[in-house]
From TrEMBL:
InterPro entries: Cyt_c-like_dom, Cyt_c-like_dom_sf, Cytochrome_c_Peroxidase/MauG, Di-haem_cyt_c_peroxidsae, MauG-like
Name of this protein: Methylamine utilization protein MauG
Subcellular location: Cell envelope
Highest taxon of the lineage: Bacteria
Protein backbone atom coordinates (compact mmCIF):
# COMPACT_ATOMS: atom_id res chain seq x y z
CA UNK A 1 0.00 0.00 0.00
CA UNK A 2 2.77 2.45 0.91
CA UNK A 3 4.51 1.92 -2.43
CA UNK A 4 1.22 2.34 -4.37
CA UNK A 5 0.62 5.44 -2.24
CA UNK A 6 4.03 6.91 -3.03
CA UNK A 7 3.25 6.75 -6.77
CA UNK A 8 -0.09 8.51 -6.22
CA UNK A 9 1.49 11.10 -3.92
CA UNK A 10 4.05 12.01 -6.57
CA UNK A 11 1.60 12.14 -9.49
CA UNK A 12 0.11 15.31 -10.98
CA UNK A 13 -2.82 13.10 -12.03
CA UNK A 14 -4.13 13.62 -8.48
CA UNK A 15 -5.32 17.13 -9.45
CA UNK A 16 -8.26 17.71 -11.81
CA UNK A 17 -6.13 19.82 -14.17
CA UNK A 18 -3.10 17.50 -14.12
CA UNK A 19 -1.11 20.42 -12.77
CA UNK A 20 -0.35 19.72 -9.13
CA UNK A 21 0.92 16.71 -7.18
CA UNK A 22 1.01 16.33 -3.42
CA UNK A 23 4.78 16.33 -3.95
CA UNK A 24 4.58 19.81 -5.55
CA UNK A 25 4.22 21.29 -2.04
CA UNK A 26 5.48 18.50 0.24
CA UNK A 27 9.14 18.28 -0.84
CA UNK A 28 12.16 16.44 0.55
CA UNK A 29 14.36 19.48 0.18
CA UNK A 30 12.24 21.40 2.66
CA UNK A 31 11.59 18.61 5.16
CA UNK A 32 8.30 17.58 3.47
CA UNK A 33 7.13 21.19 3.41
CA UNK A 34 7.81 23.76 0.62
CA UNK A 35 10.15 26.44 1.98
CA UNK A 36 7.54 29.17 1.36
CA UNK A 37 5.64 31.41 3.81
CA UNK A 38 2.22 30.79 2.21
CA UNK A 39 1.82 27.72 -0.01
CA UNK A 40 1.45 28.26 -3.78
CA UNK A 41 -1.32 26.23 -5.38
CA UNK A 42 -2.72 25.84 -8.90
CA UNK A 43 -0.97 27.87 -11.58
CA UNK A 44 2.41 27.62 -9.84
CA UNK A 45 5.34 25.56 -11.08
CA UNK A 46 8.79 24.63 -9.76
CA UNK A 47 10.04 24.33 -6.21
CA UNK A 48 10.66 26.71 -3.34
CA UNK A 49 10.88 30.40 -4.24
CA UNK A 50 10.71 29.53 -7.97
CA UNK A 51 7.15 28.43 -7.20
CA UNK A 52 6.38 31.86 -5.79
CA UNK A 53 7.88 33.65 -8.80
CA UNK A 54 5.85 31.52 -11.22
CA UNK A 55 2.64 33.12 -9.95
CA UNK A 56 -0.45 31.06 -9.26
CA UNK A 57 -2.90 30.88 -6.39
CA UNK A 58 -1.75 31.69 -2.87
CA UNK A 59 -2.99 29.37 -0.09
CA UNK A 60 -3.11 31.53 3.03
CA UNK A 61 -1.38 28.96 5.26
CA UNK A 62 2.13 27.57 5.68
CA UNK A 63 2.57 24.02 4.36
CA UNK A 64 2.74 21.47 7.18
CA UNK A 65 5.32 18.66 7.10
CA UNK A 66 4.54 14.96 7.75
CA UNK A 67 6.92 13.79 10.51
CA UNK A 68 5.09 11.33 12.76
CA UNK A 69 1.71 11.98 11.08
CA UNK A 70 -0.36 8.86 11.22
CA UNK A 71 1.38 7.57 14.34
CA UNK A 72 -0.59 6.27 17.30
CA UNK A 73 -2.33 9.16 19.05
CA UNK A 74 -1.70 11.61 16.20
CA UNK A 75 -5.35 12.61 16.06
CA UNK A 76 -5.56 16.23 14.99
CA UNK A 77 -4.75 17.51 11.51
CA UNK A 78 -4.15 20.94 9.94
CA UNK A 79 -3.29 24.23 11.62
CA UNK A 80 -6.85 24.73 12.82
CA UNK A 81 -7.60 21.06 13.53
CA UNK A 82 -10.27 20.89 10.83
CA UNK A 83 -9.87 17.09 11.00
CA UNK A 84 -10.06 16.16 14.67
CA UNK A 85 -10.23 12.60 15.98
CA UNK A 86 -9.19 13.41 19.55
CA UNK A 87 -12.62 12.56 21.01
CA UNK A 88 -12.70 9.13 19.34
CA UNK A 89 -15.27 10.34 16.77
CA UNK A 90 -13.81 12.21 13.83
CA UNK A 91 -15.03 15.77 13.36
CA UNK A 92 -14.37 17.24 9.91
CA UNK A 93 -15.96 19.06 6.98
CA UNK A 94 -17.56 15.73 6.05
CA UNK A 95 -19.89 16.41 8.99
CA UNK A 96 -20.83 12.86 9.90
CA UNK A 97 -20.18 11.41 6.44
CA UNK A 98 -16.46 10.81 7.02
CA UNK A 99 -15.03 8.42 4.43
CA UNK A 100 -12.93 6.63 7.07
CA UNK A 101 -12.42 6.23 10.82
CA UNK A 102 -8.69 6.92 10.35
CA UNK A 103 -8.12 10.68 10.78
CA UNK A 104 -5.09 10.65 8.44
CA UNK A 105 -7.18 9.04 5.66
CA UNK A 106 -9.84 11.72 6.18
CA UNK A 107 -7.14 14.45 6.07
CA UNK A 108 -5.74 13.04 2.80
CA UNK A 109 -9.21 13.44 1.21
CA UNK A 110 -9.12 17.24 1.60
CA UNK A 111 -6.23 18.64 -0.54
CA UNK A 112 -7.56 17.26 -3.87
CA UNK A 113 -10.92 19.03 -3.36
CA UNK A 114 -9.58 22.31 -2.00
CA UNK A 115 -10.22 25.18 -4.46
CA UNK A 116 -6.88 26.85 -5.37
CA UNK A 117 -4.83 24.09 -3.68
CA UNK A 118 -5.42 21.36 -6.27
CA UNK A 119 -8.63 22.57 -8.00
CA UNK A 120 -8.46 25.67 -10.21
CA UNK A 121 -11.14 28.29 -9.62
CA UNK A 122 -12.27 28.37 -13.29
CA UNK A 123 -15.63 28.39 -15.09
CA UNK A 124 -15.02 24.77 -16.06
CA UNK A 125 -15.17 23.82 -12.37
CA UNK A 126 -18.08 26.11 -11.48
CA UNK A 127 -20.17 23.12 -10.40
CA UNK A 128 -17.71 22.66 -7.54
CA UNK A 129 -18.16 26.18 -6.18
CA UNK A 130 -20.73 25.00 -3.67
CA UNK A 131 -17.84 23.24 -1.88
CA UNK A 132 -20.33 20.67 -0.58
CA UNK A 133 -19.75 17.04 0.32
CA UNK A 134 -21.60 16.24 -2.92
CA UNK A 135 -19.27 18.31 -5.11
CA UNK A 136 -16.26 16.77 -3.34
CA UNK A 137 -17.64 13.32 -4.22
CA UNK A 138 -17.67 14.35 -7.91
CA UNK A 139 -13.97 15.22 -7.74
CA UNK A 140 -13.17 11.95 -5.96
CA UNK A 141 -15.03 9.98 -8.63
CA UNK A 142 -13.33 11.85 -11.48
CA UNK A 143 -9.86 11.25 -9.98
CA UNK A 144 -10.58 7.57 -9.30
CA UNK A 145 -11.83 7.10 -12.86
CA UNK A 146 -8.64 8.67 -14.20
CA UNK A 147 -6.40 6.55 -11.99
CA UNK A 148 -8.23 3.36 -13.06
CA UNK A 149 -7.24 4.23 -16.65
CA UNK A 150 -3.54 4.68 -15.83
CA UNK A 151 -2.01 1.25 -15.37
CA UNK A 152 1.20 2.64 -13.83
CA UNK A 153 -0.89 3.92 -10.89
CA UNK A 154 -3.80 1.46 -10.91
CA UNK A 155 -1.93 -1.84 -11.13
CA UNK A 156 0.15 -1.41 -7.95
CA UNK A 157 -2.97 -0.18 -6.09
CA UNK A 158 -5.05 -3.12 -7.32
CA UNK A 159 -2.32 -5.52 -6.24
CA UNK A 160 -2.00 -3.89 -2.82
CA UNK A 161 -5.76 -3.81 -2.13
CA UNK A 162 -6.43 -7.22 -3.77
CA UNK A 163 -9.26 -5.55 -5.74
CA UNK A 164 -9.82 -5.62 -9.50
CA UNK A 165 -8.81 -2.31 -11.14
CA UNK A 166 -12.42 -1.44 -12.10
CA UNK A 167 -13.45 -1.59 -8.41
CA UNK A 168 -10.79 0.90 -7.17
CA UNK A 169 -12.24 4.08 -5.68
CA UNK A 170 -10.85 7.26 -4.16
CA UNK A 171 -10.91 5.79 -0.67
CA UNK A 172 -8.44 3.12 -1.79
CA UNK A 173 -6.22 5.88 -3.17
CA UNK A 174 -6.44 7.90 0.06
CA UNK A 175 -5.67 4.81 2.17
CA UNK A 176 -2.60 4.12 0.06
CA UNK A 177 -1.37 7.72 0.35
CA UNK A 178 -1.96 7.59 4.11
CA UNK A 179 0.00 4.32 4.30
CA UNK A 180 2.84 6.01 2.44
CA UNK A 181 2.87 9.05 4.75
CA UNK A 182 2.63 6.80 7.80
CA UNK A 183 5.57 4.64 6.71
CA UNK A 184 7.87 7.11 4.97
CA UNK A 185 7.75 9.74 7.71
CA UNK A 186 7.38 7.42 10.73
CA UNK A 187 9.40 8.71 13.66
CA UNK A 188 12.99 7.53 13.28
CA UNK A 189 15.84 7.47 15.75
CA UNK A 190 16.90 10.98 16.69
CA UNK A 191 19.92 12.02 18.74
CA UNK A 192 17.53 12.81 21.59
CA UNK A 193 16.17 9.24 21.47
CA UNK A 194 19.72 7.86 21.59
CA UNK A 195 20.52 10.11 24.54
CA UNK A 196 17.40 9.09 26.49
CA UNK A 197 17.33 5.37 25.72
CA UNK A 198 20.98 4.45 25.03
CA UNK A 199 23.01 7.12 26.80
CA UNK A 200 24.15 8.57 23.46
CA UNK A 201 26.05 11.87 23.44
CA UNK A 202 24.60 15.37 23.47
CA UNK A 203 26.71 18.52 23.70
CA UNK A 204 26.56 20.69 26.85
CA UNK A 205 24.66 23.33 24.82
CA UNK A 206 22.07 20.77 23.65
CA UNK A 207 21.58 19.59 27.23
CA UNK A 208 21.25 23.19 28.43
CA UNK A 209 18.58 23.71 25.73
CA UNK A 210 16.75 20.56 26.81
CA UNK A 211 16.72 21.68 30.43
CA UNK A 212 15.24 25.02 29.35
CA UNK A 213 12.69 23.26 27.12
CA UNK A 214 11.36 21.13 29.96
CA UNK A 215 12.03 23.74 32.65
CA UNK A 216 12.04 27.49 32.88
CA UNK A 217 11.07 28.14 29.23
CA UNK A 218 7.85 26.06 29.66
CA UNK A 219 8.03 24.78 26.05
CA UNK A 220 6.80 21.36 27.15
CA UNK A 221 3.61 22.91 28.54
CA UNK A 222 2.38 22.65 24.93
CA UNK A 223 5.08 20.88 22.88
CA UNK A 224 4.85 17.64 24.88
CA UNK A 225 4.10 13.95 24.31
CA UNK A 226 5.58 11.66 21.66
CA UNK A 227 5.13 14.25 18.88
CA UNK A 228 6.14 17.34 20.87
CA UNK A 229 2.56 18.56 20.50
CA UNK A 230 -0.37 18.38 22.93
CA UNK A 231 -2.64 18.19 19.83
CA UNK A 232 -4.42 21.18 21.28
CA UNK A 233 -4.82 24.85 20.33
CA UNK A 234 -2.92 27.83 21.66
CA UNK A 235 -2.27 31.47 20.92
CA UNK A 236 1.26 32.64 20.12
CA UNK A 237 1.31 36.17 18.67
CA UNK A 238 3.29 35.46 15.49
CA UNK A 239 3.04 38.19 12.86
CA UNK A 240 0.61 37.37 10.05
CA UNK A 241 2.14 37.04 6.55
CA UNK A 242 -0.04 37.34 3.48
CA UNK A 243 -3.78 37.78 3.07
CA UNK A 244 -4.77 35.37 5.87
CA UNK A 245 -7.48 32.71 5.92
CA UNK A 246 -10.05 35.33 6.95
CA UNK A 247 -8.77 38.02 4.59
CA UNK A 248 -7.17 41.45 5.05
CA UNK A 249 -4.21 39.92 6.87
CA UNK A 250 -6.28 38.09 9.51
CA UNK A 251 -6.45 34.40 10.39
CA UNK A 252 -8.83 33.45 13.22
CA UNK A 253 -7.34 29.94 13.39
CA UNK A 254 -9.28 27.40 15.44
CA UNK A 255 -12.26 29.78 15.62
CA UNK A 256 -12.90 29.08 11.91
CA UNK A 257 -13.72 25.49 12.89
CA UNK A 258 -15.52 25.88 16.24
CA UNK A 259 -16.97 29.45 16.00
CA UNK A 260 -16.18 29.69 19.71
CA UNK A 261 -14.78 33.16 20.55
CA UNK A 262 -12.46 31.49 23.09
CA UNK A 263 -10.71 29.84 20.12
CA UNK A 264 -9.88 33.08 18.29
CA UNK A 265 -6.24 33.17 17.08
CA UNK A 266 -5.46 29.68 18.39
CA UNK A 267 -3.60 27.11 16.29
CA UNK A 268 -2.64 23.48 16.80
CA UNK A 269 0.69 23.24 18.60
CA UNK A 270 3.06 22.16 15.80
CA UNK A 271 5.03 18.95 16.37
CA UNK A 272 8.76 19.68 16.42
CA UNK A 273 10.51 16.74 14.69
CA UNK A 274 12.78 18.09 11.93
CA UNK A 275 11.60 21.62 12.67
CA UNK A 276 15.14 22.75 11.77
CA UNK A 277 14.35 21.78 8.14
CA UNK A 278 10.94 23.41 7.70
CA UNK A 279 11.52 27.18 7.70
CA UNK A 280 9.73 29.55 7.39
CA UNK A 281 7.69 29.16 10.58
CA UNK A 282 4.17 29.63 11.99
CA UNK A 283 0.72 29.16 10.43
CA UNK A 284 1.43 31.86 7.85
CA UNK A 285 5.19 31.31 7.58
CA UNK A 286 5.85 34.85 8.76
CA UNK A 287 9.15 34.03 10.50
CA UNK A 288 12.22 32.97 8.52
CA UNK A 289 14.54 32.16 11.40
CA UNK A 290 14.16 29.41 14.02
CA UNK A 291 15.54 31.62 16.80
CA UNK A 292 12.97 34.32 15.98
CA UNK A 293 10.21 31.67 15.98
CA UNK A 294 11.18 30.83 19.57
CA UNK A 295 11.52 34.52 20.51
CA UNK A 296 8.04 35.28 19.13
CA UNK A 297 6.55 33.11 21.90
CA UNK A 298 7.99 35.17 24.74
CA UNK A 299 8.84 38.60 23.31
CA UNK A 300 6.53 39.34 20.37
CA UNK A 301 7.42 43.06 20.28
CA UNK A 302 11.04 42.18 19.53
CA UNK A 303 10.08 40.86 16.12
CA UNK A 304 7.40 43.39 15.20
CA UNK A 305 7.95 46.76 13.60
CA UNK A 306 4.78 48.59 14.69
CA UNK A 307 5.39 51.45 12.24
CA UNK A 308 5.30 49.08 9.28
CA UNK A 309 1.86 47.85 10.38
CA UNK A 310 -1.47 49.47 9.60
CA UNK A 311 -3.73 50.61 12.44
CA UNK A 312 -6.04 47.65 11.72
CA UNK A 313 -3.11 45.23 11.95
CA UNK A 314 -2.06 46.71 15.27
CA UNK A 315 -5.62 46.39 16.62
CA UNK A 316 -5.62 42.74 15.52
CA UNK A 317 -2.27 42.25 17.26
CA UNK A 318 -3.68 43.61 20.56
CA UNK A 319 -6.52 41.08 20.32
CA UNK A 320 -3.98 38.29 19.88
CA UNK A 321 -2.00 39.52 22.88
CA UNK A 322 -5.14 39.06 25.00
CA UNK A 323 -5.38 35.39 24.03
CA UNK A 324 -1.63 34.93 24.57
CA UNK A 325 -1.63 36.59 28.02
CA UNK A 326 -3.30 33.54 29.62
CA UNK A 327 -0.86 31.05 28.02
CA UNK A 328 1.96 29.55 30.11
CA UNK A 329 4.56 31.11 27.81
CA UNK A 330 3.68 34.77 28.47
CA UNK A 331 5.78 36.36 31.17
CA UNK A 332 8.80 34.12 30.46
CA UNK A 333 12.08 35.90 29.74
CA UNK A 334 14.69 34.22 27.52
CA UNK A 335 18.12 35.75 26.91
CA UNK A 336 19.68 35.47 23.44
CA UNK A 337 22.06 32.68 24.49
CA UNK A 338 19.14 30.71 25.96
CA UNK A 339 17.32 30.97 22.64
CA UNK A 340 20.48 29.64 20.94
CA UNK A 341 20.53 26.73 23.44
CA UNK A 342 16.89 25.93 22.61
CA UNK A 343 17.72 25.99 18.88
CA UNK A 344 20.57 23.54 19.54
CA UNK A 345 18.17 21.27 21.45
CA UNK A 346 15.65 21.31 18.57
CA UNK A 347 18.44 20.15 16.26
CA UNK A 348 18.60 16.89 18.24
CA UNK A 349 15.09 16.07 16.90
CA UNK A 350 16.28 15.54 13.31
CA UNK A 351 15.91 12.27 11.41
CA UNK A 352 15.57 11.27 7.74
CA UNK A 353 12.57 9.98 5.81
CA UNK A 354 12.82 6.40 4.52
CA UNK A 355 12.82 7.26 0.82
CA UNK A 356 13.09 10.38 -1.31
CA UNK A 357 9.97 11.75 -3.03
CA UNK A 358 9.76 13.52 -6.42
CA UNK A 359 6.95 15.11 -8.44
CA UNK A 360 5.93 13.14 -11.58
CA UNK A 361 3.39 13.72 -14.39
C1 LIG B 1 -0.52 23.81 -2.93
C2 LIG B 1 0.32 23.13 -1.98
C3 LIG B 1 -0.15 21.80 -1.41
C4 LIG B 1 -0.49 20.67 -2.10
C5 LIG B 1 -0.53 20.47 -3.60
C6 LIG B 1 -0.78 19.68 -1.11
N1 LIG B 1 -0.63 20.19 0.15
FE1 LIG B 1 -0.83 19.20 1.89
N2 LIG B 1 -0.67 20.95 2.91
C7 LIG B 1 -0.47 22.17 2.33
C8 LIG B 1 -0.74 23.23 3.30
C9 LIG B 1 -0.67 24.73 3.04
C10 LIG B 1 -1.10 22.57 4.49
C11 LIG B 1 -1.58 23.24 5.79
C12 LIG B 1 -3.02 23.68 5.54
C13 LIG B 1 -3.77 24.08 6.78
O1 LIG B 1 -3.49 23.52 7.85
O2 LIG B 1 -4.66 24.93 6.69
C14 LIG B 1 -1.05 21.14 4.22
C15 LIG B 1 -1.33 20.16 5.16
C16 LIG B 1 -1.40 18.81 4.87
C17 LIG B 1 -1.68 17.76 5.84
C18 LIG B 1 -1.90 17.96 7.34
C19 LIG B 1 -0.61 17.73 8.11
C20 LIG B 1 -0.76 18.06 9.58
O3 LIG B 1 0.24 18.21 10.26
O4 LIG B 1 -1.89 18.19 10.07
C21 LIG B 1 -1.72 16.57 5.16
C22 LIG B 1 -1.99 15.20 5.74
C23 LIG B 1 -1.47 16.88 3.77
N3 LIG B 1 -1.26 18.24 3.63
C24 LIG B 1 -1.46 15.94 2.76
C25 LIG B 1 -1.44 16.26 1.41
C26 LIG B 1 -1.72 15.30 0.35
C27 LIG B 1 -2.00 13.83 0.56
C28 LIG B 1 -1.69 15.99 -0.81
C29 LIG B 1 -2.01 15.48 -2.19
C30 LIG B 1 -3.30 14.82 -2.35
C31 LIG B 1 -1.35 17.38 -0.47
N4 LIG B 1 -1.22 17.49 0.87
C32 LIG B 1 -1.19 18.39 -1.41
C33 LIG B 1 -0.06 22.40 1.03
C34 LIG B 1 -0.26 21.51 0.00
C1 LIG C 1 1.20 27.93 24.92
C2 LIG C 1 1.63 26.76 24.17
C3 LIG C 1 3.06 26.81 23.63
C4 LIG C 1 4.23 26.93 24.34
C5 LIG C 1 4.39 27.01 25.85
C6 LIG C 1 5.30 26.92 23.36
N1 LIG C 1 4.78 26.82 22.11
FE1 LIG C 1 5.83 26.74 20.38
N2 LIG C 1 4.13 26.93 19.34
C7 LIG C 1 2.86 26.86 19.86
C8 LIG C 1 1.89 27.14 18.82
C9 LIG C 1 0.37 27.15 18.99
C10 LIG C 1 2.62 27.38 17.65
C11 LIG C 1 2.05 27.76 16.27
C12 LIG C 1 1.38 29.12 16.36
C13 LIG C 1 1.05 29.75 15.03
O1 LIG C 1 1.52 29.28 14.00
O2 LIG C 1 0.32 30.75 15.03
C14 LIG C 1 4.03 27.20 18.01
C15 LIG C 1 5.08 27.27 17.13
C16 LIG C 1 6.39 26.92 17.41
C17 LIG C 1 7.46 26.80 16.46
C18 LIG C 1 7.31 26.96 14.95
C19 LIG C 1 6.96 25.62 14.37
C20 LIG C 1 6.55 25.61 12.94
O3 LIG C 1 6.57 24.52 12.36
O4 LIG C 1 6.17 26.64 12.36
C21 LIG C 1 8.59 26.45 17.16
C22 LIG C 1 9.98 26.20 16.58
C23 LIG C 1 8.22 26.40 18.55
N3 LIG C 1 6.88 26.67 18.67
C24 LIG C 1 9.10 26.11 19.59
C25 LIG C 1 8.80 26.38 20.91
C26 LIG C 1 9.78 26.48 21.97
C27 LIG C 1 11.28 26.26 21.81
C28 LIG C 1 9.10 26.77 23.11
C29 LIG C 1 9.65 27.11 24.47
C30 LIG C 1 10.38 28.38 24.50
C31 LIG C 1 7.68 26.84 22.76
N4 LIG C 1 7.55 26.63 21.42
C32 LIG C 1 6.65 27.06 23.66
C33 LIG C 1 2.53 26.64 21.18
C34 LIG C 1 3.42 26.76 22.22
Amino acid sequence: MAEAGRLLFQSKSLSLDHETACASCHLDRFGSSDGLPNAMGVGSTGQGTARMRSGGAVIPRNTLPFWGRGGKGFTTFFWDGKVDGSSGTILSQFAGREPSQDPLVVAVHLPPVEIDEMVADTAEHSTLEGESVGSAAKVFDALAERVRSLSSLADPLAAATAKPVEKLDFKDMAEAIAAFIRQNFAIGTTRLHRFVFDGGPLSPQEIAGGLLFYGKAHCSACHDGPYFSDMSFHAVPFPQAGFGKNGFGIDYGRYNVTMDPADLYRFRTPPLYNVTKTAPYSHSGAIADLGDAIRAHVDPLAIYDPRSMTGVQRADFYERLKAWSSEPISGVYLADDEIRDLEAFLKTLEYDSREPVAETD
